[in-house]
Design brief:
54% of the residues lie in helices and 0% in strands. By secondary structure, it is mainly alpha-helical. The protein is globular.
């Protein structure tokens, strides 16, 4: 909802600026959910569903810091 369709539907490689805009999706979604009175667990799922136990991206959380809901959401995101 927050990313322009011209970026989301772009057929080629994204520019650095476009990629940075896409990377804001999880933070903006988290903020929107909190403003809509979603539970902290649900909002956190949006914020952390890209985390991996290898601690590479985006916040480099440890395995113990990633709760079960974002792990499930990550699976749904890639299926």
């Amino acid at each position: 909802m927050m990313i322009p369709l011209i970026i989301l539907n772009k057929p080629g490689k994204l520019t650095t600026k476009e990629f940075e805009a896409v990377r804001t999706i999880r933070v903006e979604g988290h903020k929107m959910l909190l403003e809509a009175a979603a539970s902290a667990r649900r909002a956190g799922c949006c914020l952390h569903h890209h985390e991996k136990v290898e601690q590479r991206y985006p916040e480099r959380l440890t395995d113990a810091q990633i709760s079960l809901l974002p792990r499930w959401a990550r699976l749904c995101d890639v299926i």
